[in-house]
Amino acid sequence: MNFLKNAQKQKKKNCKKCNTNKILRELKIISPDETLDEIINNNKSISRFGDGEIYLIFGGKIGFQKFNKKLSKRLYDILQTNEKGLLIGMH
């Protein structure tokens, strides 16, 4: 979860309104086996968030994508979703 620490640093520089601590508190981490069980047995989908998506949420930029407020909000909304058939994977 090193990328979350980096995101917190990025947030301090660029995004005063983001609530990093709220996101961290609400994470429910499951094992790879539990993830596969959810996908197979409960017909769930998975969306992967990596360093780039996290940086963009908290006001950063990545090599091919400048910070965009609308994209940042949309990624944040997806991360906060309560969609029953969706798992969010973080790498």
What descriptive keywords fit this protein?
5 helices, 91 residues, two-stranded parallel ribbon, 2 strands, mainly alpha
Structure in words:
This protein has a two-stranded parallel ribbon with strand order 1-2. The mean pLDDT is 78. Helix 1 packs parallel to helix 4. The protein has one domain. The chain has 5 helices and 2 strands. By secondary structure, the protein is mostly helical.
How many helix segments? 5
Low-confidence stretches: none
- The percent range for helix content is 40-55%
Say how many strands there are.
2
Q: How does the major sheet shape up? A: 2 strands, parallel
Q: What is the rounded distance between the termini? A: 8 Å
Quaternary status of these chains? single chain
Structural class: mainly alpha
Mean pLDDT: 78
Assess the beta-strand content as a share of residues: 5-15%
**Helix and strand succession?**
HHHEHHE
The number of domains: 1
Q: What's the overall geometry?
A: elongated
Strand order of the largest sheet: 1-2
* Rg on CA atoms, Å: 14 Å
Could you give a quick summary of the protein structure above?
Helix content is 53%, strand content 11%. The chain has helices spanning 2-14, 20-26, 32-41, 51-57, 69-79; strands at residues 45-49, 86-90. A two-stranded parallel sheet has the order 1-2.
